[in-house]
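User: We ran a pulldown and think these components assemble together. Before we commit to crystallization trials, I'd like a predicted model of the whole complex to look at. Sequences follow.
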Amino acid sequence: MRPFAILNARLLDPESRLDARGGLLVVEGRIADLGPQLDGRDLPADCEVLDADGRCLAPGLVDLRVRLGEPGYEHKERIDTAVAAAAAGGFTSIAALPDTRPPVDDPAMVESVARRARLLKSVKVYTWAALTRGLEGRELAELGLLAEAGAIGATDADRQVADARIMYRALAYASVFDLLVQTHPEDASLARGGVMNAGVVATRLGLAGVPRWAEIIALERDLRLVEATGARLHVAHITTAEAVAAIRDAKARGLPVTCDVTPHHLLLGEEEVEGWRTYARIVPPLRTARDRAALIEGLADGTIDAVASDHTPQDQDSKRLPFAQAEPGTVGLETALAAVLELVHAGSLPWQRAIEVLSTGPARILRLPAGRLTKGAPADLVLFDPDERWTVTETGLHSLSKNTVFEGRTFRGRVLATWVDGRPVYPRFRTGLATSP
Amino acid sequence: MTHLARSRFPHRHLLGIAQLEAEDIELVLDLADSYVEVQRRPEKKLEILRGFTQINLFFESSTRTRTSFELAGKRLGADVVNMAVQHSAIRKGETLIDTAMTLNAMRPDVLVIRHADSGAVALLARHVRCSVINAGDGSHEHPTQALLDALTIRRRKGRIAGLTVAICGDIAHSRVARSNMLLLGRLGARVRAVGPRTLVPREIASYGVEIHHDMRRGLEGADIVMMLRLQTERMQGSFVPSVREYFRFYGLTRDKLRHAAPDALIMHPGPMNRGVEIDGEVADDIHRSAILDQVEMGVAVRMACLDLLTRDRRPAADGDGFRPEGG
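Assistant: Here's a predicted model for the assembly, 764 residues in total across the polymer chains.
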């Protein structure tokens, strides 16, 4: 692999607080040098050069929660299409959820997903393992063996472990292996049957609601169990102002807790469901303007550690149904960065923090060697134009399924190129930005 | 009428009361009034929908609403076909949208649809070229029921504006309640929602209605007492503890009715659960109960809806279709 340099870029690295015009040199898949001093002189003899023309160069994005479709849902997504979507969205590392068919509750399955992903030589794919066998919430999965097989953590995905005693044991047991546990904070008995946020809109549409306290109650329980066990807990996709407050309080008490929010919960509310729009059928449900304000505030002040796409592909037949019968979820890999940049353009989030919540933050939660622009680090990079406007269309997506809740929205900020270990993964060909001196 | 009455119905479908303005509602009611008279003649059949095809597509079983729509179509001269889901391909895995497209290819002029899911009728309407009438979708709306209730009230009380209407029972799951709250509010009635907290949640107040959990206070001075049907599965401990407890606190009895206005009218969309939400004796009181009027008005209102929705597709010679007696 020839060395290459990206010059004249706006370098953004949250870890070192770097935000400056400069260059970055990649040799043998790693960052060999970077900074304002790198201006094209003193480059290796056979070095390729790209002129970024002032566009932003940041550490590749890291997604905490993605559904790959394999095994079992290959008609909704495949590993190759998911990885293509990730690359197009600027992601260089993604973590796959275990709610496949069958679920990833066996060490052999962790290895199989990882192997299939490795063969694609693209975005790095990590695997969450099931927390309980079959995601059924009754018996512990083989957490130690799953961790040995390479699982980055354990979770039952969008199922809450309803039995508090099982959850207590899962946390206690996982702590022995220092294994990260991820929880879906939604009380199953309160959420049962609900298909959107409980409130005035649900009442008018005649749809059953999921009350906000389904989240708050489940979260408060799990925070107490963390207190009891000392296990590391990551709380997936919080949606309410009260949950932000509860996490803030837990962190102040020193609990080893992290959490994330999705781009759609940051930008969209329950009114998206008007007209029974099934693309807006999401678990957990889209909430209210007050919640969005609290989530953005929590994201800015560090209460919320990361943004996760919750990429959930659904084929047409799963969405072209009466609202309550439609499968939940939205694809998100290809819109996550643009959605977070919308908060930056609105003045709600500083540039450094935007990159941090999409890259450094999730890498830190998963303890991955990613999310940094620093000498010696893997050259996982994303180059994006912070101002280019583009409109989300189904045909523009790389994901096999096109169920984007952001359909038709015009964003400002677009991914131009993505590299993993110095290899260009998006666009797959040598980037159109390439100019040789 | 003081305002300039509309003669055109500016909607292709009737999916809910939410889409209607007061003028639209009055247009339906005025026309329905004249159809009441037609129905009382020995010769009830008109020709204005001759050659038109109406398909009644019922994904949820219903005898009275389906029959009412069937009679309405036939009395206007339409060819009416009933399709019950038990006989259709839905059971064989065909999707709702496939069914809509298949029926669309048969070129009906009106589809009357009932479905157990909120929004399902609107979804179907997006995939067909004919007019669609919502005959009840989930907990969302049942617009013709609200229109027939309004017609019943207007004929018995001479007006709707200014009346106090108490809607009692399972408001949370009721499409009849939703359509009625919208319609009665739009025509200027004062509406109350009466029932236990589990069946009348706070969000119901967003319809601009007063909420009462004490039935006696909810009925105080009411001109209209509209009872709703309580589904069996909701009265066995899930939403209310038992039938007898429900009847004790929320069943309409002669005693509770004493709190309403002396000439209060009792209504029920049927079918009634006697001894659950309503005392049999009260339901049968011909001076107070408008329950059979409602059934009669149902056919007239549905005739009016079918007439109005098809007007722009009928020959110009037909003019405004049926003209009231002497008109």
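The longest helix of chain A spans residues 212-229. That may be worth checking against your pulldown data before setting up trials.

User: Thanks, that helps.
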